[in-house]
Amino acid sequence: MDVHRNLLHPLRVYSLIFGLLFNHRVPAEGAEYASTYIVHMDKYVMPSQFYNHEHWYRSMFYSVKGVRANQNTHIEDLYHYTYDIVMHGFSAKLTQSELDILEDMPGHLMSFPDPVGKLHTTHSTEFLGLTPKLGLLPISQFGQDVIIAVLDTGIWPESQSFLDNGMEAVPARWKGTCESGTAFHPSLCNKKLIGARYFNKGAVAKYGDIDPTQDYDSPRDNRGHGSHTSSTAAGNYVDDVNYYGYTAGTARGVAPDGRIAMYKCVWETATSVALGSDVLAGMESAITDGADVLSLSLGSTPLPISKML
Protein backbone atom coordinates (compact mmCIF):
# COMPACT_ATOMS: atom_id res chain seq x y z
CA MET A 1 0.00 0.00 0.00
CA ASP A 2 1.35 3.42 -0.96
CA VAL A 3 0.88 5.47 2.21
CA HIS A 4 2.05 8.69 0.60
CA ARG A 5 -0.87 8.92 -1.85
CA ASN A 6 -3.34 9.23 0.98
CA LEU A 7 -1.51 11.98 2.85
CA LEU A 8 -2.40 14.92 0.64
CA HIS A 9 -5.86 15.99 1.74
CA PRO A 10 -5.53 15.94 5.57
CA LEU A 11 -1.93 17.05 5.33
CA ARG A 12 -2.93 20.38 3.75
CA VAL A 13 -5.10 21.03 6.79
CA TYR A 14 -2.48 20.02 9.35
CA SER A 15 0.38 21.78 7.63
CA LEU A 16 -1.70 24.95 7.93
CA ILE A 17 -2.52 24.26 11.58
CA PHE A 18 1.10 23.60 12.51
CA GLY A 19 2.17 26.65 10.56
CA LEU A 20 -0.26 28.86 12.47
CA LEU A 21 0.65 27.33 15.82
CA PHE A 22 4.39 27.68 15.49
CA ASN A 23 4.64 30.55 12.98
CA HIS A 24 8.05 29.46 11.77
CA ARG A 25 10.17 30.08 8.73
CA VAL A 26 12.28 27.18 7.49
CA PRO A 27 15.84 28.12 6.54
CA ALA A 28 16.77 27.93 2.88
CA GLU A 29 18.05 24.54 1.72
CA GLY A 30 21.73 24.24 2.59
CA ALA A 31 21.69 27.15 5.06
CA GLU A 32 22.13 24.78 8.00
CA TYR A 33 23.84 21.44 8.33
CA ALA A 34 21.36 18.57 8.68
CA SER A 35 21.94 15.43 10.74
CA THR A 36 19.91 12.28 11.32
CA TYR A 37 17.86 12.20 14.53
CA ILE A 38 15.82 9.45 16.12
CA VAL A 39 12.60 11.02 17.40
CA HIS A 40 10.72 9.34 20.26
CA MET A 41 6.99 10.07 20.17
CA ASP A 42 4.01 9.49 22.48
CA LYS A 43 1.76 7.49 20.16
CA TYR A 44 -1.26 7.90 22.43
CA VAL A 45 -1.67 11.62 21.75
CA MET A 46 -2.04 11.17 17.98
CA PRO A 47 -4.95 13.35 16.74
CA SER A 48 -7.90 11.29 15.51
CA GLN A 49 -7.75 12.84 12.05
CA PHE A 50 -4.64 10.78 11.24
CA TYR A 51 -5.32 7.20 10.20
CA ASN A 52 -2.02 5.77 11.54
CA HIS A 53 1.14 6.88 13.30
CA GLU A 54 3.28 7.07 10.20
CA HIS A 55 0.75 9.48 8.68
CA TRP A 56 1.04 11.66 11.79
CA TYR A 57 4.85 11.52 11.95
CA ARG A 58 5.23 12.34 8.27
CA SER A 59 2.85 15.29 8.51
CA MET A 60 4.98 16.74 11.31
CA PHE A 61 8.12 16.12 9.27
CA TYR A 62 6.68 17.83 6.18
CA SER A 63 5.49 20.71 8.33
CA VAL A 64 8.93 21.50 9.76
CA LYS A 65 10.38 21.16 6.26
CA GLY A 66 7.77 23.61 4.95
CA VAL A 67 6.56 21.34 2.13
CA ARG A 68 3.61 19.12 1.25
CA ALA A 69 3.84 15.36 0.78
CA ASN A 70 5.34 14.30 -2.57
CA GLN A 71 6.10 17.94 -3.41
CA ASN A 72 9.86 17.49 -3.19
CA THR A 73 11.56 14.14 -3.86
CA HIS A 74 14.73 15.25 -2.09
CA ILE A 75 12.78 16.06 1.08
CA GLU A 76 11.03 12.67 0.85
CA ASP A 77 14.43 10.94 0.95
CA LEU A 78 15.24 12.67 4.26
CA TYR A 79 12.51 10.74 6.12
CA HIS A 80 14.19 7.41 6.87
CA TYR A 81 12.16 5.02 9.03
CA THR A 82 8.97 4.73 11.09
CA TYR A 83 9.17 2.71 14.34
CA ASP A 84 6.07 1.21 15.94
CA ILE A 85 7.30 -1.85 17.89
CA VAL A 86 10.78 -1.45 19.36
CA MET A 87 9.84 2.18 20.10
CA HIS A 88 7.31 4.73 18.88
CA GLY A 89 8.64 7.39 16.58
CA PHE A 90 10.71 7.89 13.47
CA SER A 91 14.12 8.88 12.16
CA ALA A 92 14.82 11.68 9.72
CA LYS A 93 17.47 14.15 8.65
CA LEU A 94 16.84 17.55 10.25
CA THR A 95 18.63 20.82 10.85
CA GLN A 96 18.90 22.14 14.40
CA SER A 97 16.23 24.77 13.66
CA GLU A 98 13.85 22.12 12.34
CA LEU A 99 14.54 19.92 15.35
CA ASP A 100 13.78 22.82 17.70
CA ILE A 101 10.40 23.28 16.02
CA LEU A 102 9.65 19.56 16.11
CA GLU A 103 10.49 19.30 19.81
CA ASP A 104 7.76 21.84 20.60
CA MET A 105 5.07 19.85 18.79
CA PRO A 106 2.46 17.81 20.70
CA GLY A 107 3.49 14.21 21.27
CA HIS A 108 7.26 14.73 21.11
CA LEU A 109 9.08 13.00 23.99
CA MET A 110 12.78 13.09 23.15
CA SER A 111 15.19 13.28 20.21
CA PHE A 112 18.58 11.59 19.87
CA PRO A 113 21.40 12.21 17.40
CA ASP A 114 21.79 8.99 15.41
CA PRO A 115 24.42 7.01 17.41
CA VAL A 116 27.22 5.01 15.78
CA GLY A 117 27.82 1.49 17.09
CA LYS A 118 30.89 -0.75 16.80
CA LEU A 119 31.24 -4.51 16.45
CA HIS A 120 31.73 -6.84 19.45
CA THR A 121 32.16 -10.59 19.75
CA THR A 122 32.39 -12.95 22.73
CA HIS A 123 32.99 -16.68 23.23
CA SER A 124 29.27 -17.29 23.56
CA THR A 125 29.00 -20.94 24.59
CA GLU A 126 31.68 -20.72 27.28
CA PHE A 127 30.20 -17.49 28.59
CA LEU A 128 26.73 -19.06 28.80
CA GLY A 129 27.98 -22.35 30.24
CA LEU A 130 26.31 -24.43 27.52
CA THR A 131 27.26 -28.08 26.95
CA PRO A 132 25.88 -30.52 24.35
CA LYS A 133 24.93 -33.27 26.84
CA LEU A 134 23.26 -31.46 29.73
CA GLY A 135 21.14 -28.38 30.25
CA LEU A 136 19.50 -26.00 27.82
CA LEU A 137 21.00 -27.29 24.57
CA PRO A 138 19.56 -30.83 24.64
CA ILE A 139 16.35 -29.65 26.32
CA SER A 140 15.76 -27.20 23.46
CA GLN A 141 16.66 -29.87 20.87
CA PHE A 142 19.58 -27.68 19.83
CA GLY A 143 17.33 -24.79 18.92
CA GLN A 144 15.04 -26.70 16.59
CA ASP A 145 12.96 -24.23 14.54
CA VAL A 146 14.00 -21.27 16.70
CA ILE A 147 14.30 -18.26 14.37
CA ILE A 148 17.35 -16.16 15.20
CA ALA A 149 17.53 -12.66 13.74
CA VAL A 150 21.16 -11.54 13.47
CA LEU A 151 21.76 -7.79 13.12
CA ASP A 152 25.27 -7.45 11.77
CA THR A 153 27.48 -6.92 8.69
CA GLY A 154 25.51 -9.32 6.49
CA ILE A 155 26.01 -12.96 5.58
CA TRP A 156 27.97 -15.09 3.10
CA PRO A 157 25.24 -17.57 2.09
CA GLU A 158 27.58 -19.98 0.29
CA SER A 159 29.28 -20.97 3.56
CA GLN A 160 28.78 -24.62 4.47
CA SER A 161 27.52 -23.46 7.86
CA PHE A 162 24.39 -22.19 6.13
CA LEU A 163 23.51 -25.31 4.14
CA ASP A 164 20.08 -26.72 4.97
CA ASN A 165 20.99 -30.42 4.88
CA GLY A 166 18.53 -32.43 6.96
CA MET A 167 16.31 -29.47 7.80
CA GLU A 168 12.52 -29.56 7.53
CA ALA A 169 10.25 -26.93 5.97
CA VAL A 170 10.47 -23.31 7.13
CA PRO A 171 8.07 -22.68 10.06
CA ALA A 172 4.69 -21.45 8.81
CA ARG A 173 4.74 -18.55 11.27
CA TRP A 174 7.68 -16.93 9.44
CA LYS A 175 6.70 -13.76 7.52
CA GLY A 176 10.15 -12.61 6.42
CA THR A 177 11.78 -12.57 3.01
CA CYS A 178 15.12 -12.43 1.25
CA GLU A 179 15.84 -9.15 -0.51
CA SER A 180 17.90 -8.82 -3.67
CA GLY A 181 20.86 -6.47 -3.97
CA THR A 182 24.46 -6.34 -5.10
CA ALA A 183 25.79 -9.91 -5.54
CA PHE A 184 22.82 -11.30 -3.61
CA HIS A 185 19.78 -13.06 -5.06
CA PRO A 186 16.81 -14.32 -3.01
CA SER A 187 17.44 -17.83 -4.35
CA LEU A 188 20.53 -17.96 -2.10
CA CYS A 189 18.24 -18.40 0.90
CA ASN A 190 17.12 -21.86 1.96
CA LYS A 191 15.67 -23.71 4.95
CA LYS A 192 18.61 -22.61 7.15
CA LEU A 193 19.01 -19.01 5.95
CA ILE A 194 15.33 -18.08 5.78
CA GLY A 195 15.58 -14.29 5.67
CA ALA A 196 17.96 -11.56 4.54
CA ARG A 197 17.26 -7.83 4.58
CA TYR A 198 19.42 -4.70 4.66
CA PHE A 199 19.02 -1.23 6.17
CA ASN A 200 21.36 1.62 5.25
CA LYS A 201 19.43 4.90 5.19
CA GLY A 202 21.15 6.13 8.35
CA ALA A 203 24.59 5.12 7.10
CA VAL A 204 24.03 6.71 3.69
CA ALA A 205 22.77 9.92 5.29
CA LYS A 206 25.95 10.21 7.38
CA TYR A 207 28.65 8.77 5.11
CA GLY A 208 27.20 8.90 1.59
CA ASP A 209 26.33 6.07 -0.79
CA ILE A 210 27.71 2.60 -0.10
CA ASP A 211 31.20 2.39 -1.64
CA PRO A 212 31.27 -0.75 -3.86
CA THR A 213 34.98 -1.16 -3.12
CA GLN A 214 34.21 -1.33 0.62
CA ASP A 215 30.92 -3.20 0.91
CA TYR A 216 27.99 -4.82 -0.89
CA ASP A 217 24.77 -2.80 -1.11
CA SER A 218 22.84 -5.92 -0.17
CA PRO A 219 22.60 -8.52 2.62
CA ARG A 220 25.96 -10.00 1.49
CA ASP A 221 28.77 -9.84 4.04
CA ASN A 222 32.02 -8.17 3.01
CA ARG A 223 33.78 -8.12 6.40
CA GLY A 224 32.91 -11.60 7.68
CA HIS A 225 31.71 -10.58 11.13
CA GLY A 226 28.03 -11.22 10.41
CA SER A 227 28.77 -14.62 8.87
CA HIS A 228 30.87 -15.45 11.94
CA THR A 229 28.19 -14.46 14.46
CA SER A 230 25.46 -16.19 12.43
CA SER A 231 27.39 -19.46 12.27
CA THR A 232 28.22 -19.12 15.97
CA ALA A 233 24.52 -18.77 16.78
CA ALA A 234 23.00 -21.38 14.48
CA GLY A 235 25.52 -22.73 11.97
CA ASN A 236 24.75 -26.20 10.65
CA TYR A 237 27.10 -29.15 11.22
CA VAL A 238 30.27 -28.98 9.09
CA ASP A 239 32.49 -32.08 9.16
CA ASP A 240 36.27 -32.32 8.76
CA VAL A 241 37.01 -28.78 9.87
CA ASN A 242 40.61 -28.06 10.87
CA TYR A 243 43.00 -25.21 11.50
CA TYR A 244 45.87 -25.63 9.05
CA GLY A 245 45.73 -29.37 9.59
CA TYR A 246 45.40 -29.21 13.38
CA THR A 247 42.46 -29.79 15.76
CA ALA A 248 40.27 -31.50 13.17
CA GLY A 249 36.63 -31.98 14.08
CA THR A 250 33.03 -30.96 13.40
CA ALA A 251 32.02 -27.32 13.59
CA ARG A 252 28.51 -26.19 14.50
CA GLY A 253 26.68 -23.28 16.01
CA VAL A 254 25.16 -23.09 19.48
CA ALA A 255 21.74 -23.94 18.00
CA PRO A 256 22.54 -25.96 14.86
CA ASP A 257 18.89 -26.83 14.24
CA GLY A 258 17.79 -23.20 14.41
CA ARG A 259 16.97 -20.88 11.52
CA ILE A 260 18.91 -17.72 10.61
CA ALA A 261 17.57 -14.41 9.33
CA MET A 262 20.15 -11.71 8.56
CA TYR A 263 19.31 -8.03 9.02
CA LYS A 264 22.32 -6.16 7.71
CA CYS A 265 22.69 -2.83 9.49
CA VAL A 266 26.48 -2.59 9.90
CA TRP A 267 28.36 -1.04 6.99
CA GLU A 268 31.97 -0.70 5.92
CA THR A 269 33.28 2.85 5.60
CA ALA A 270 36.74 3.64 6.96
CA THR A 271 35.67 1.20 9.67
CA SER A 272 32.56 -0.85 10.47
CA VAL A 273 29.70 1.39 11.59
CA ALA A 274 26.16 0.70 12.78
CA LEU A 275 23.85 3.72 12.84
CA GLY A 276 21.19 3.55 15.53
CA SER A 277 18.41 4.40 13.07
CA ASP A 278 19.36 1.43 10.87
CA VAL A 279 19.66 -0.93 13.86
CA LEU A 280 16.22 0.08 15.15
CA ALA A 281 14.74 -0.46 11.68
CA GLY A 282 16.31 -3.91 11.55
CA MET A 283 14.90 -4.79 14.98
CA GLU A 284 11.46 -3.50 13.97
CA SER A 285 11.51 -5.64 10.83
CA ALA A 286 12.80 -8.75 12.62
CA ILE A 287 10.03 -8.64 15.22
CA THR A 288 7.38 -8.06 12.54
CA ASP A 289 8.78 -10.96 10.49
CA GLY A 290 8.38 -13.33 13.42
CA ALA A 291 11.90 -13.80 14.81
CA ASP A 292 12.14 -15.49 18.21
CA VAL A 293 15.57 -14.13 19.17
CA LEU A 294 17.48 -10.96 18.32
CA SER A 295 21.27 -11.35 18.21
CA LEU A 296 23.38 -8.16 18.18
CA SER A 297 27.12 -8.23 18.65
CA LEU A 298 27.31 -4.44 18.79
CA GLY A 299 28.13 -1.67 21.22
CA SER A 300 28.59 2.08 21.29
CA THR A 301 30.60 4.75 23.03
CA PRO A 302 29.33 5.21 26.62
CA LEU A 303 26.61 7.86 26.76
CA PRO A 304 24.78 9.68 29.56
CA ILE A 305 21.57 7.91 30.56
CA SER A 306 19.55 10.83 29.16
CA LYS A 307 21.04 10.17 25.70
CA MET A 308 20.60 6.39 25.61
CA LEU A 309 17.96 4.82 23.38
Automatic annotation (TrEMBL):
Key words, A-Z: Hydrolase, Protease, Serine protease, Signal
Domain Inhibitor I9: 36-120
Molecular function terms, GO-annotated: serine-type endopeptidase activity
Domain Peptidase S8/S53: 143-300
Pfam family, one: Peptidase_S8
Single GO BP term: proteolysis
Region (Disordered): 210-233
Family from the record: Belongs to the peptidase S8 family.
Protein name (database record): Peptidase S8/S53 domain-containing protein
